[in-house]
Write a structure and sequence with these properties.
The protein has 192 residues and is an alpha/beta fold. The protein has one domain. The chain has six helices and six strands; from the N terminus they run βαβαβββαβααα. Strands 1-2-3-4-5-6 form a six-stranded mixed sheet. β1, α1 and β2 form a beta-alpha-beta unit.
């Protein structure tokens, strides 16, 4: 590729089906933005406890080519997602709205071997294998899922822990539920 060549800029469609097959092998850069409803993201929809009006994610994509020492320029993909999903709070077991935002940067490589050899120390960019039918929608969904907390909860002090998880407040432990000390059993056996 000629370093002085001006590459065409392609505007991405906002249609989820069109985002499932982007040609990142073509010598062109991409840009686009849109909104994805939770229903358009099946793995994310499984995580949702309910879907409220306005739930979903705004996405923004931009690619450009950057010089790479000793090789052809590499395509860099910048992705930003921001939105809201409702999940079950793991403290009170009630609906909880999560506002999520994630910005990521990827470098497109030609093969799996090249991706495996990519320096781990580079925490600013992750390698992705370019293809003619790249699933950009899947990448957007992956980034949203990765931005979700492992244990979703309301903000501190916004909810009360669910009673069934920790026992009723003020409930005295039942004496019959306390196991007998095994050493007392042995002591009683020795006496008899």
């Amino acid at each position: 590729m000629n370093r002085n060549q001006v590459l065409p800029q392609v505007e991405l469609s906002t249609d989820p089906k069109a985002l499932s097959r982007i040609d990142f092998c073509a010598p062109q850069s991409y840009q686009g933005a849109g909104f994805l409803e939770i229903a358009a993201l099946p793995r994310l929809a499984q995580e949702a406890s309910s879907i409220e009006p306005g739930d979903g994610f705004h996405w923004q994509i931009k690619t450009h080519f950057a010089d790479s020492p000793g090789s052809e320029p590499r395509q860099i993909l910048e992705l930003a997602v921001k939105g809201r999903i409702h999940v079950v709070c793991q403290s009170c077991l009630k609906d909880c709205g999560l506002d999520l935002a994630q910005e990521s940067q990827f470098v497109m490589v030609a093969t799996e071997e090249e991706a495996d050899a990519f320096p781990i120390e580079d925490d600013q960019q992750e390698p992705l294998v370019a293809s003619q039918h790249f699933d950009l929608l899947g990448l957007i969904e992956d980034e949203i899922l990765l931005s979700m907390p492992l244990i979703p909860k309301h903000p501190e002090g916004a909810c009360q822990p669910h009673a069934s998880s920790f026992g009723e407040a003020g409930e005295a432990p039942d004496a019959s539920e306390n196991p007998q000390n095994p050493f007392n059993i042995l002591k009683n056996m020795k006496k008899n």
